[in-house]
Amino acid sequence: xxxxxxxxxxxxxxxxxxxxxxxxxxxxxxxxxxxxxxxxxxxxxxxxxxxxxxxxxxxxxxxxxxxxxxxxxxxxxxxxxxxxxxxxxxxxxxxxxxxxxxxxxxxxxxxxxxxxxxxxxxxxxxxxxxxxxxxxxxxxxxxxxxxxxxxxxxxxxxxxxxxxxxxxxxxxxxxxxxxxxxxxxxxxxxxxxxxxxxxxxxxxxxxxxxxxxxxxxxxxxxxxxxxxxxxxxxxxxxxxxxxxxxxxxxxxxxxxxxxxxxxxxxxxxxxxxxxxxxxxxxxxxxxxxxxxxxxxxxxxxxxxxxxxxxxxxxxxxxxxxxxxxxxxxxxxxxxxxxxxxxxxxxxxxxxxxxxxxxxxxxxxxxxxxxxxxxxxxxxxxxxxxxxxxxxxxxxxxxxxxxxxxxxxxxxxxxxxxxxxxxxxxxxxxxxxxxxxxxxxxxxxxxxxxxxxxxxxxx
Length: 458
What we know:
This protein is an alpha/beta fold. It has helices spanning about 70-75, 95-120, 135-140, 190-205, 220-230, 265-270, 290-295, 310-325, 330-345, 375-385, 390-395, 395-420, 430-450, and strands at about 20-30, 35-40, 60, 125-130, 145-150, 155, 160-165, 175, 185, 215, 235-240, 240-245, 250, 280-285, 300-305, 355-360, 365.
């Protein structure tokens, strides 16, 4: 997927929705049992979800409702795609797993106040559940698959204006003007060099001017350390996979020496803590989800992926995520848009839940100006893309070029959707796919009108 302006989820400079935050906290007690509570954090008015006066009574027993093998079976490229079964009685393993997890986490008291927050999200506010835990067993649970069968009747992470992210503890740096964004794409071995070059190429084509992006190829820890400390990116994109170390835990595939076992989250985090202004870390590869959550102590926003995720789904997710962030959307809104795009592009399956995002902010990372990164890129390409009608109308070349590029992308998306779903009755399309298709067609009509192109023309 091209990393480019796609207006299916908002316009450049749109104000982000006001998200209601519900904090889900799960702790392990001294007796080995778990308990959980869901509450509004202090910044939101410090009202626990329990109706009891004593906040301690908000805690409920929590029993882990799913097994590791179930998660692996659901989030796997080998799973039969489920989206085409919408409207049928065919069981959906992801939905079943997500329902059990959701019900176990909220309990009776939590469900009542959650319903109120979800009601607010259905009107003019968004809902973001932030998961907080220090226990690795709880961290490994697929919270992204949580399914609300009573209120939303949807996966919480896919419903409009709702999101689930892991809670980060690094202090956010605030919003950054688009002109100050610096992206560094790093390949960590020879196997990932071509993939890193592809990421950089697509970013240059669709979202970033050349002077905002650098590409680095490293082979070991020392070269990675030097590149990061010298380049001082605001967004660091590391292409490479994680793995389970011999002594347990997830490690990233950059070695201090040929016989090493990869770097730990602590080693990576301590390096990144030295980079002033680093807003976001992307670990582009499978088996990096635990690393991303652990490094969230050092970086405001981190992204990783579970094992067995399809590489194409990773590219699709990151393409839409970056595009939404460049537009000035909030972190929860951008994450939800990215998951929805994976549903559309992958034609089902559960890869949309394979991305694990941790964040310490629910706001935007980027403030688009009148001269956004997208517009800067379109200036360079405007002359070769301008329709004659736009030139005759006197439209600003940068504006016309940007619109022409968006028209091209929307038409490509329309064609891809029809190729994937034309054999399925429209009434059986997943809701997110139908909404995406209708939105794309509306955009095509609107942009053609603005450019003075006949609506029926391609």
